[in-house]
Amino acid sequence: MRSTCAVLLAASSLFVLSNSAFAQNGEAAAETAALDEEIVVFGSGQTRQVQELDAADIALLAPGTSPLKSIEKLPSVNFQSADAFGAYEWSQRLSIRGFNQNQLGFTLDGIPLGDHSYGNVNGLHVNRAISPENIGLTRVSQGSGGLGTQATNNLGGTVEFFSRAPAPDFGLESSGSYGTENTIRAFARLESGEIGGAEGTGAYISYGYLGMDKWKGVGKQRHHMVNAKAVAALGDARVTATLSVSDRRENDYQDMSSTMIDRLGYDWDNISGDYRLAVQVADAYWAGTALPAPFATIDDAYFNAAGLRKDYVAALGVEAPVSDMVSVALKGYWHNNEGQGLWYTPYVQTPGGAPLSIRTTEYDIDRKGLFGSITGEIGFNEITVGGWYEKNDFQQARRFYGLTDRLSPSRNSLKFQKDPFFTQWESDFDTETLQYHVEDRITLGAATITLGWKGFKVTNEATPIVVSTFAQGKIKAEDWFQPHAGFAYEINDYLEMFGGFTQVARAFTASSTGGPFGTTQDGFNAIKGTLKPEESDTYEAGIRFRGGSFNGVLGGYYVNFRNRLLSFAQGAGIQGNPAVLQNVGSVRSYGLEAAGEVKLGAGFKLFASYSYNDSTYRDDVIDASDPNAIRVVALTKGKTTVDAPKHLAKGELSYDGELFFGRIGVNYMSKRYYSYENDASVGGRAIVDASIGWRIAEGYELQVSGTNLLDKKYVSTVGTNGFSTSGDSQTLMVAAPRQVFATLKAAF
Fold first, then answer.
1. CB atoms within 10 A of CB 272
2. How far apart are CA 494 and CA 328, in angstroms?
3. 3-state SS class at 705
4. Mean pLDDT, the chain, as a whole number?
5. Measured at the alpha carbon of residue 339, what is the angle toward residues 336 and 344, in degrees to the nearest 5?
6. Would you say residue 16 has pLDDT above 50?
7. Which residues contact 61 (CB under 8 A, 6 or more apart)?
């Protein structure tokens, strides 16, 4: 298979650049001007709903803010996090048009980032791939995205990030921030300038650091990041090399339920500052006696928890014209990850030691991939043929580490643990991905038509290293024809219509904590021949407005999502019991999206967006193990999809003058359900953030940023431990209170 894929990609790279014609154009756009000084570019000429944000938009947020948080103001984009920066990964959730983040596609310079789940088995969060200061352009497609996106899970939208180019002049840019919870953010980027006087040839290297105390409880969150990029112009060809190194270590906040919030308050957290209390609670649990106040259950709080991730990402790519009519692009990449997710669990005692231990889920990813394409112009046709191949070797394990001391913790939660006393399970997962796409972009005067399709085959294989109850074996998802079609028509210089249809399938993932292998061997054997990949059909249409001081878009969509997969977890999240996976029917979604910006003059701009989404389950969940298929597990037919607010409204006023600049933004989200039967929900909320800056002198800026300015207490994230069939569950994250940060920026 490897040789076949290599030949296939090599042949395509000698024959006809990636539909990444648009992806590569995105990379080029990231290296040019500031998008006509617009806050948002609404995808003029594109046959689908799409918006772009440039680096200036991220610069107005608190330094270190997640790139995902910067896109939350766009229509249908729902971003949640329990920290001010949107960077705390356990609480990060992004959904678009009712699809959650593992049903969305994410790329950086075309490199696939996987599904952005917390325990990501096939990629990494963008927070660990690039510092936000190095992002030149962000493109959001609310539908299923472009054909050439390197993703096999983008049932919903795609989010594409493009890194900035090296600057033409030698220089150093730096910034330092300090704020609430002893937050320190430092960033520095050294630019080489043009090397050898060659235009378009240069490099940069940057270092970023973010460190802070938790806003409640006891613990730290730290992140070190190094990015480097080099670009060389070799004749008409362009060679690009990138490297990213990330070391992220963060103590977790406690997952809550509505009942816990009512009983314990919003500020309740893990008891990391009181190890003796943790021992006392565990002793009471094992003795079967009453827990100390205010504990009602053993899961009210744990002593501590943490997430540790080390990542290395490297890529080398070339783009070149073969002739006046044909261009080629090819890029190879490598990603290595080491990770541990830690819980101090009272469910397992340390032999001869404390009545609790450290339970880890451990990750080791080694991915290698290659993608490329060829674009050729024939008359009014621009034809693109492209392909992507990836080999992912992923190992996952569940281990327990001893706490020998009853008086003080004998291990540091922010260090990788060694010398376990027990390995419960360990497996090796091999995933091989082959994807191709074909697209014809037809230009007929004022009309643009796109026709094409993509296809993939993804094979997952699980092999036990330490045998357990979890499944082993092989399963594949294959769909060689997923059609895409669209049009854009310029009515006049100010109006443009667009519309399209896309059909997408989602491949299975391979791990012991999710997907087909996250169950028993008998369970896997029962589903491997009948389990169907999730699929979606998306229809969308709209109109764009552009002219004078106004720029905007109005659109609507209809989505038919079928073969929905659902895992039924058993017990508390910390216990890690096997889940049951099955197809449970379909979801219907339809909605409206509107966004616009107005240049008010005198340096002021106003941006606003609104989206309405009606997303409902079309079937009840039936027990797949029931031979008569009559036992109803969940009464979901007609119920609203979990974590899918019907209304999202965002507004932002910005100012940019000679001396001062700033922004103030309001983000409203309506009620969200976190049980499938819709009997558990969290209310709507409106949050205000702002920044103000002063250009002290040439090259020097002072910026003050505030988040949650009204200091509102609310639930930010739902579904951290999945969703229950009915009733309250411990799967909520409380948002950070008001926080303020000051930043000094200097450029030399």
1. 23
2. 34
3. strand
4. 91
5. 175
6. no
7. 69, 70, 132, 689, 691, 705
